[in-house]
Amino acid sequence: MRRILYCLFLGIIVIGCQKPHFIADNYLKQAKKYLEEAKKYQEEWYKNSALTGIESDPKYIEAMVIYEKKYRETNQMAIKYYEKVIKMNPQILNGEDYLKLGNAYFESLDTSKPSIQTLTQKEKIIDKAMKSFELALKLTPKMIDAYLGLALCYEMKHQWDEAISECKKALALEPKNANIYVIMGEIYRWKGKFDLAEVNFNKAIEIDDTHINAYLNLAGVSLTTGQPEKALTRLKKVLYIKPDNLSAKVSLKIIDDSFSTIKQTKEKLRKDPKNFQLLRTIGRSYDQVGMWSEALKVYKEAYKVSPTYSIACDIAQCLISNPFRTEEDIKSAIKILEEPRVQVKGGLKDFLTLETLARAYKADNDYEKALESYKELMKLDPKNGLVYYYIGEVYEEIGNRKKAEQFFKKASKLKQSQQFH
Q1: 75: Cβ–Cβ under 8 A, 6 or more apart, which residues?
Q2: Which of 92, 155, 247, 249 has its CA 20 to 30 A from that of 83?
């Protein structure tokens, strides 16, 4: 009898010792399961987001919001289970697991404006992602995707040199990896160095002439720099490789619609060359495809016909949105919005005009006036989360972190209350 009890006692000890390992293993399976589900929701979210650009149907917007919410919830569940594994038995995680966790953290960032996350929350998420990528490299030193994950984290922190450095470490291991050149190109594009961005996207295509993201990025650079014809060529190449690519279809539709509108409206303008609405329509169509100088020329013609605050706003937005803007452009934008005739016609009581003026002041590093304009906007629309977010950005730029966080929190609460409830 004693022997039986002793054996049972030993069995309980063995089972008790195995239990944490068994639970951790189960948690890891759950984490991977949630990641797979999250990936499906993310695909639906992106698909419906793209479809809103092709067809203005409310059902796509509704679906986009629903799938984004499902994606974020499911991705968060994956993170939760990975974190449980780390607490209980981190030894069962390998480099690939830490890579997936790092990606899950990074993908959980909300980069939209306004964001549902505060400045501090974003920083914590990026730090967790970086730690995961570093652990992935510690366990698997030649993991290319972990280096690229670190590069993207540095990009989010606006630490451009460090981001490029991580890409170069990856290139040293795999010099013929097209994805590395695409990430480097995206970093340069984000920084506004479009020539270097193009160089890297073209290198990616030299390695893999079917690389969809390289062509899409090149098309994006072409549109930003006012070369829609080049963008068309690159987008058609994407559809030749992958006929159902929604991103290419959306961009092609924007360009085709803009050129079609310009052509048709110019025909009407020949009969009525001083028609304000026709001039403004042409200007906005040029604006949409990044043809900044052409847009500006037409907007100025419209302003001569009718110097309203609305067209003054169009001119100012065109000047400050141009990626090649000069200090003189910014001053010109401010000047036209501050003109007495714009103010008299109610421009400084108009939301869009005030917002444009605030952006212009910010671009001119006149943060005091930018804050004044944004606070006027806040009075006009106290439930607009975007305004609070912009105020937070100004406070962040001038180094007032406490104030910035207050406004980011308010923006986050407003967005969540309006979008997710």
Answers
A1: 34, 35, 38, 42, 104, 107, 108
A2: 155
What 251-260 contacts at long range (C-beta under 8 Å, 24+ apart), as own/partner pairs, is: 251/216, 251/219, 251/220, 251/223, 253/53, 253/54, 254/53, 254/288, 254/289, 255/223, 255/228, 255/231, 255/289, 258/228, 258/285, 258/286, 258/288, 258/289, 259/228, 259/285, 259/289
The structure tokens listed for 127 are 């730090």
pLDDT computed for residue 420 by the predictor: 42
pLDDT digits (tens, 9 = 90+) for 145-195: 999 999 999 999 999 999 999 999 999 999 999 999 999 999 999 999 999
Q: Which amino acid is it at 141?
A: P
Q: Please spell the DSSP secondary structure of 113-155, one letter per residue.
A: SS-SS-HHHHHHHHHHHHHHHHHHHHHSTT-HHHHHHHHHHHH
Rounded Cα distance, 253 and 231, in Å: 12
Report the distance separating Cα 290 and Cα 228, nearest Å.
Answer: 7
Could you give the angle at the alpha carbon of 174 between the alpha carbons of 171 and 177, nearest 5°? 85
Q: Do residues 90 and 384 touch, judged by C-beta distance below 8 A?
A: no
**346: left (phi > 0), else alpha (psi -120 to 50), else beta?**
left
Length, in residues, of the chain: 421
Amino acid at 319: L
Segment 92-135, tens digit of pLDDT:
999 999 999 999 999 999 888 888 888 889 999 999 999 999 99
The rounded distance, in Å, linking the Cα atoms of 24 and 26 is 5
